[in-house]
């Protein structure tokens, strides 16, 4: 276990900064999925299975029609044609949920049947309605059907003993549908990470307020709540806290969350209390990371009520906060919930219109736009300019060993949107 960095960097600055890759590897090795819990099927979408699901029933559990028409004995239709149709006596009907009431079909008999309805005993095929003509209690069939045509067999979809879904599966809409079809009521899933937001700042107004005087509206809580929801976590109720050490200490000591996200108060300013408090109350594994923006990011752990919680000290500047979350907090929350640590973004490769300058020894998170198939760096380095991420299509990461990227170089863009959008909208 790493020792806490208890050094107070307020008004002194960082003597050194940790490497992004080292921090990432540390989190990857140290983070384990949370225990499992049983979840109602209706709440299982998006959750991660913590056990294999094996079918205990056949789906369907009965032979059924694959189309609207007439259930018949296939051999009774042999030789039927448009010019010489075969006549069969209609002896009943079969609808989904309302099967044929007779005992068994006899030679030269038929049952009107709808798609999905149970096949009557004695039938082995279904004649499509398109080649049938009802005539005074009989049906005239103008095309033959072989046995086993146009019907679904027992267990055609799922059979008893089939492995329906494997452990570790993030449940999609169709996955939940299959679970319903095999009669699942409760599903064992990895618990959702509980996330505590600690938003600090004497200058902050709550989201929904109007900016006034020297106050600004808190946007980080909205961004973080949205990202946590995306990553499968659940944000607990919170309030904006003043920049007072005793208030922040009380907040850090309380709660039962699996992850604590501290927004603001993490750098080297006089009122940046959070790093020292985390070091005193638990472990401060890292503080100061070689990246731009987000270099004041801190990572630590707290033990509360016998449970260990990860703590991420995220810079107050909005772009830095977003960047630090994506690099460190997001992958951890996803891993705790049993999901893949990888960034959940689509990527594309395209050439740079303008060069990107960087500095060897740090990772740069560069906001970029897409114009006419080219990648264009957004002309701002301000970590407080959240609107730059709105104008951007995504970001480009410059590795620590590179001095930048040249004009015309093919680069990988991590896209903010699931679909490409017109940046002029």
The count of domains is: 4
| Class per helix and strand makeup | alpha/beta
Cα separation of the termini = 49 Å
Question: Per CATH, which architecture of the largest domain?
Answer: 3-Layer(aba) Sandwich
Tell me the number of strands: 29
Average pLDDT works out at 91
- Proportion of residues in helical segments: 10-25%
Q: Point out poorly predicted stretches.
A: 1-5
Strand residue content: 25-35%
Highlighted features:
425 residues; alpha/beta; Molybdenum Cofactor Biosythetic Enzyme, Chain A; Molybdopterin biosynthesis moea protein, domain 2; Molybdopterin biosynthesis moeA protein, domain 3; seven-stranded mixed sheet; six-stranded mixed sheet; 7 helices; elongated
Structural notes for this entry:
- The protein is α/β, with parallel strands linked by helices and 425 residues long.
- The chain starts with 19 loop residues before the first helix and ends in a 10-residue tail after the last strand.
- The chain is elongated.
- Strand 25 and strand 26 (374-377) form a beta hairpin.
- The protein folds into four domains: 20-35 and 192-336, Molybdenum Cofactor Biosythetic Enzyme, Chain A; 38-59 and 157-190, Molybdopterin biosynthesis moea protein, domain 2; 64-152, Molybdopterin biosynthesis moeA protein, domain 3 (Beta Complex), CATH 2.170.190; 347-415, Beta-clip, CATH 2.40.340.10.
- 17% of the residues lie in helices and 29% in strands.
- The protein is built from seven helices and 29 strands.
């Amino acid at each position: 276990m790493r020792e806490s960095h208890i050094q107070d960097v307020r008004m002194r600055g960082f003597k050194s900064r940790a490497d992004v890759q080292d921090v990432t590897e540390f989190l990857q090795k140290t983070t384990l999925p949370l225990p499992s819990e049983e979840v109602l099927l209706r709440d299982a979408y998006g959750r991660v299975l913590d056990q294999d699901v094996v079918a205990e029933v056949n789906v369907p559990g009965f032979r059924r029609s694959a189309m609207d028409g007439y259930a018949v004995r296939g051999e009774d239709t042999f030789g039927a044609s448009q010019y010489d149709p075969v006549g069969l006596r209609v002896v009943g009907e079969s609808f989904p949920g309302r099967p044929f009431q007779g005992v068994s079909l006899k030679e030269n008999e038929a049952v009107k049947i709808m798609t999905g309805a149970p096949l009557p005993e004695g039938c082995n095929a279904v004649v499509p309605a398109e080649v049938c003509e009802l005539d005074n209690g009989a049906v005239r069939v103008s095309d033959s059907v072989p046995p086993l045509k146009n019907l679904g067999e027992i267990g055609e979809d799922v059979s008893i003993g089939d492995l329906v879904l494997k452990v570790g599966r993030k449940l999609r809409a169709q996955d939940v549908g299959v679970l319903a079809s095999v009669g699942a009521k409760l599903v064992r899933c990895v618990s959702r990470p509980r996330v505590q937001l600690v938003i600090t700042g004497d200058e902050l107004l709550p989201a929904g307020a109007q900016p006034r005087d020297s106050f600004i509206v808190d946007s980080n809580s909205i961004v973080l709540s949205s990202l946590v929801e995306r990553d499968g976590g659940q944000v607990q109720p919170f309030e904006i806290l003043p920049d007072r050490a005793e208030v922040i200490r009380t907040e850090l000591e309380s709660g039962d969350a699996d992850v604590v996200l501290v927004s603001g108060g993490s750098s080297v300013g006089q009122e940046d209390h959070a790093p020292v408090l985390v070091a005193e109350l638990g472990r401060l594994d890292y503080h100061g990371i070689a990246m731009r923006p987000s270099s004041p990011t801190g990572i630590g752990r707290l033990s509360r009520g016998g449970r260990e919680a990860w703590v991420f000290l995220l810079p107050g500047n909005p772009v830095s906060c977003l960047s630090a979350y994506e690099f460190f907090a997001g992958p951890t929350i996803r891993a705790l919930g049993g999901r893949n640590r990888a960034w959940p973004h689509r990527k594309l490769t395209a050439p740079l219109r303008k060069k990107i300058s960087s500095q060897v020894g740090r990772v740069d998170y560069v906001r970029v736009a897409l114009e006419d198939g080219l990648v264009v760096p957004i002309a701002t380095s301000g970590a407080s300019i959240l609107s730059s991420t709105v104008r951007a299509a995504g970001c480009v990461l410059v590795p620590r060993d590179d001095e930048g990227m040249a004009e015309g170089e093919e680069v990988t863009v991590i896209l903010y949107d699931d679909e490409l959008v017109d940046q002029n909208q």
